[in-house]
Amino acid sequence: MRTGQLRSFRIAIKSLIGNRLRVFLAVLAIIIGVASLIVLVGIGRGTEQEIRKSIEDMGPNMIIVSAGQSRVIKGQLGQLGMIINLTLKDAAAIAEECPSVRAVAPAHSKKLLVKSDSVTYSTKIVGTVPSIQEMRNISLQSGSFFDETENSLMAHVAVLAPTVVESLFGMRDPTGRSIMIGKVTFKVIGVTAPKGSVSGEDQDDQIFVPLRTAISKLMNVTYLSHVFVEAAGLDNIHTAGMEIKSLLRERHRLRDDKADDFTIQNQADVIEAQSSVSRSFSLLVLSIAVSSLVIGGVGIMGVMLVSIQERISEIGIRRAVGAKRSDIFVQFLVESLFLGILGGIGGLLLGLSASAGVKLISRMPLVLEPKYILLSLVFSLATALLFGIFPSWRASRLNPIEALHTEA
Question: Which phi and psi (to 5°) does residue 176 adopt?
Fold first, then answer.
């Protein structure tokens, strides 16, 4: 570095140290912008990864056939109506007549009151068949899942998910105990491992019971709410969906001008819907962060212009003793860049601290990726550089004679 530029560098640092309050106000918006970018992008990435993992844990080849029409709204599947003509015979037909289907698990679910001793809790009861355990990758942390014999005999056995166990039994092991579902007594034979949430629905807040027991003794229905279908492979998932649609429309005798009375959804659709929501959220976060950085940049430019106005005599003296225009330009550009560096470092520290606090207090999934942290620092430097060019250029263009006769 040349002597003139080194002197400009030292003068810039000295000027910043001598105006700490002004420096703090100039970089405050930069700090907020960088911190916001780190925290909100971390939340967005963490949420996206958790959703993807939860969906993949359910089985990437999974197709869910629901009774009635459903629609994905803001990433969540909402059912528009219940149709009662999705039956066990439909499920059997899918298994037998769709060549791209490997396995089928019919199910009917309904929210009911559950009681253990004096504790009452409302949760989703899922009546289904034993094969659902393998199809949806349901692991057990204790006990066992019911088998086909227990389903055929309409046994009163139940497998609880962790949220239900915590609500009814606290820290106690429920295996072997009795619970009341509606007005029917069930024996707890197992507890599933935690699976987390998918599309805002807690997968750990449900109870599995044999399908025949559920539809005959608990819910008194003859139809299904869902049929879980496993495609023969990931490449066959769309073919399987078309086969199921064609089969069900034929079985339900739907004319060409009639809409489906069922909904077919595969995991790829869910992932795409969630990714779309995540992308929208990321764009919103980016727009907020960029707005903060632009405001910070305007603040830096304003502070730099005021600083130049107050130091016109200083600039005139430097020019009179031999400093070149490039030296003056570098001096003020360095000051601007230092403001960007200070704002970036301050925002980084605030963002990391806030991220740790959010994760600790709210237990929200939050993933800090180095590339986004580095990107936020680059943004802060680029902002300071961009908004520092004009004040630096203006300072370098001052006439030294006029500057010496100007009072700050």
Answer: 90, -10
Task: Answer for the pair 125, 209: CB distance below 8 angstroms, yes or no.
Answer: yes
Give per-residue pLDDT as tens, 266-320: 766 666 666 666 667 667 767 776 777 787 788 778 877 877 877 777 778 877 7
Nearest Cα neighbor of 44 from 287, 386, 303, 335 is 287
**Per-residue H/E/C for 339-407:** HHHHHHHHHHHHHHHHHHHHHHHHCCCCCCCHHHHHHHHHHHHHHHHHHHHHHHHHHHCCCHHHHHCCC
Q: Give backbone dihedrals phi and psi of 74, rounded to 5 degrees, phi first.
A: 55, 40
- First-residue to last-residue Cα distance in the chain: 31
Element (H, E) at 192: strand 184-192
Mapping DSSP to helix (H, G, I), strand (E, B) and coil, where does residue 257 land? coil
The reply to whether the predicted model has a pTM over 0.70 is no
In angstroms, rounded to a whole number, what is the distance separating the alpha carbons of residues 309 and 299?
15
Using CB atoms within 10 A of its CB, is residue 126 exposed (0-12), middle (13-18) or buried (19+)? buried
What residues form DSSP beta bridges with 120?
Answer: 115
Cα-trace Rg, the chain: 32
The pair of three-digit structure tokens given for residue 157, joined into one six-digit string: 């056995």
Q: Where would I find the beta strands (DSSP E) of 220-368?
A: 226-231, 262-266
Structure tokens that stand for 228 in this block = 């879980």
Angle at the Cα of 60 from the Cα atoms of 54 and 64, rounded to 5 degrees = 90
DSSP structure string for 66-123: EES-EEEETTEEEE----S---HHHHHHHHHH-TTEEEEEEEEEEEEEEEETTEEEEE
- Write the pLDDT tens digit of every residue in 141-176: 999 999 999 999 999 999 999 999 999 998 888 999
147 phi, psi to nearest 5 deg? -110, -175
Both tokens of 176, joined, read 């072997």
Q: What is the DSSP letter of 236?
A: G
CA-angle at 132, arms to 128 and 138, nearest 5°:
120
The tokens describing 199, both together, are 């599309």
